[in-house]
Amino acid sequence: MRLAVLKERRPAETRVAATPETAKKFIGLGCTVAVEAGAGLASGIPDAEYAAAGAEIARDAAAALKGAGIVLKIRAPLAAGEGAVDELSLIPRGALLLGQLQADEAQANAYAKAGIEAGAMELLPRITRAQSMDILSSQANLAGYRAVVEAAAAYDRAFPMLMTAAGTISAANVFVMGAGVAGLQAIATGRRLGGRVSATDVRPAAKEEIKSLGAAFVGYESEESKQAQTAGGYAKQLSAEFYAEQAKVVAAHIAKQDIVVTTALVQGRKAPTLVTAEMVRSMKPGSVIVDIAADAGGNVALTKPGELVTTENGVKILGYHNWPGRIAGASSSLFARNLLTFLTTFWDKEAKAPKLPAEDEIVKGVLLTRGGSVVHPSFAPAKAA
Ligand code: NAD
Q1: Which residues form the Alanine dehydrogenase/pyridine nucleotide transhydrogenase NAD(H)-binding domain (predicted)?
Q2: Ramachandran area for residue 233 (φ above 0: left; ψ -120 to 50: alpha; else beta)
Q3: Residue 382 confidence (pLDDT)
Q4: Is the distance from CB of 194 to CB of 165 less than 8 angstroms?
Q5: CA gap 220, 200 in Å, rounded
Q6: Three-class SS of residue 194?
Q7: pTM of this prediction?
Q8: Of 181, 238, 249, whose CA–CA distance to 209 is shortest?
Q9: What is the pLDDT at residue 279?
Q10: 179 C-alpha to ligand 1 centroid (Å)
């Protein structure tokens, strides 16, 4: 079984879907591993390290993909017209493609037509058994860490209270909005740096988690928010009335913050706007906002995706793309391990090949296409009654 690892070609993508460590493990499972030349460079991994792990270095995508039965990617392969290389057309029929594919119906149909078995790892069910394969968690965790580190670097004061002979510098007030995986790591990192940390969320379970990390909970709670969590663990879209009440509580708090980190997402929708232009105007000059949700439309009204904006009142808003990609060495290593765990869980040792049982809950959640058809319930055409 030949396993191919491609160089990522989409803008701002610095990660790679396999590391020398995982390549070696795949070789141990009986695979031959082909890594496209330069695939790991932006994550700090030279070709020589893959070669030392036993991988073949392929000169281009076509050479890596020739005869491949498994293809590992961070983001969806480029299709015709999307870039200089039509990666999709180079993937052999019957190959299993795994990555954060963010597929829609049209893409799912394109994979089916190409005869590719596509696994969209971001659709993994959030069950205990799947935790170690969960790319959303592993990447969000690092994004949360990185956001606070970048906030600290952009802030022209200090996070901890510093008592010096020349006088005292007060601790930074850090407010984290959205206490899921990224937010909880942001809280922990803000505390480690010595900030005075508070946080908000709409899911009731998050309140206890915020407090257990030593941060203060600030938020609006109502009958509606008691039901704010879906069975899958995500936040629900709530009513306009709820958001208006939440905004009132948040507005008073934000005016006193030095650092705001926003991480709030509602699955399948644009990220909710939690910080209005007026709230940004209420903040002190020199304050910093980091909007990790920028790629999902942003939690801050003034975020410009991909940019650092300095507002008229001197507030910096960091709305960069791809926060996990800003800490690419670590995020590649965890993403690669997530893919390795998925494949080893569904590995047929005799055949030395993946075996994805159609009835398995994880497989059902992830697999978009099989045998030339779209099989995922979210994308498959409704069966005739
Ligand atoms: P997410 O990235 O979808 O959203 C980030 C956070 O934003 C969530 O906590 C959400 O409640 C919050 N949010 C949404 N709207 C908001 C608003 N208006 N105001 C404030 N906050 C708002 O979520 P996530 O980080 O992927 O995880 C959510 C939950 O799932 C967590 O409890 C996490 O522990 C759980 N989880 C479970 C597993 C597992 O069991 N395998 C894996 C990963 C995550």
Answers
A1: 152-319
A2: left
A3: 62
A4: no
A5: 9
A6: coil
A7: 0.95
A8: 181
A9: 97
A10: 7
Ligand 1 pocket (Cβ < 6 Å) reads: 126-128, 130-131, 134, 136-137, 140, 177-183, 200-203, 205-206, 233-235, 263-267, 272, 274
State which amino acid sits at residue 347: W
**Cα distance between the two ends of the chain:** 40
Q: Which residues are catalytic?
A: 126, 131, 134, 137, 234
- By DSSP bridging, strand 96-100 and strand 117-120 are parallel
| Pairing mode of beta strands 369-370, 373-374 | antiparallel
Q: What are phi and psi of 308, to 5 degrees?
A: -105, 120
Please report where in the chains the tokens 């954060």 appear, as a residue: 100
Q: Which two tokens stand for residue 175?
A: 């407010």
Report the distance separating Cα 332 and Cα 327, nearest Å: 9
pLDDT of residue 383: 53
Q: Which two tokens stand for residue 289?
A: 């906002």
Residues of the chain falling short of pLDDT 50: 384-385
Distance CA 190, CA 175 (A): 9
What pLDDT is attached to residue 385? 41
